[in-house]
Amino acid sequence: MSKLRLRFHRQTLLTVLPVLLLLVVIAFAAGAPARTRGSDAEALRMMDRAQHLLERIGAEAAPEAFAGHDSAFIDRDLYPMLLDDQGTMIAHGWTATLNGSDLKDLRDVDGKAFIREALDGSAREGSTDVTYQWIDPLTGQVARKTIHARRLVLNGRPYMLAVGVYR
């Protein structure tokens, strides 16, 4: 009877072990996408760095400072945006073709005027967070995104600096 139990346990172990190994691999793989995403803390640190740079070089130099996917201000899916207080994009870190565009009435897929909300909140409170639905540039799918925005005054003019985080 003892040999039968030992054989049964060995067979069970040989059956269960590969399944457990597969589950461990899946668990590690599930954590991998998180490393490809910027966090809220990283977004806020990027915004601090961008603000310090802009305070030194001014808003006029922002498009060049933020430009290109090899910029020091592109980190995975994190990038800065600088808009004037009327909603005109001054410098977009991911899509420079948006520079000069009036985006105050831009809406997400659910119709939310998220830029206007961020402009109003940052002007009123100094900083704000707005969550909306947007196309994720890494997946091409609609995903939740939170834009962290703050009001800046550069050379006497008000601006909104923002960095968004995909969820």
From TrEMBL:
Keywords recorded for this protein, A-Z: Cell membrane, Kinase, Membrane, Transferase, Transmembrane, Transmembrane helix
Compartments, record wording: Cell membrane
The protein's name in its UniProt record: Signal transduction histidine kinase
Limits of the Single Cache domain: 71-150
Source organism, top-level taxon: Bacteria
GO molecular function, one term: kinase activity
Pfam families from the UniProt entry: sCache_2
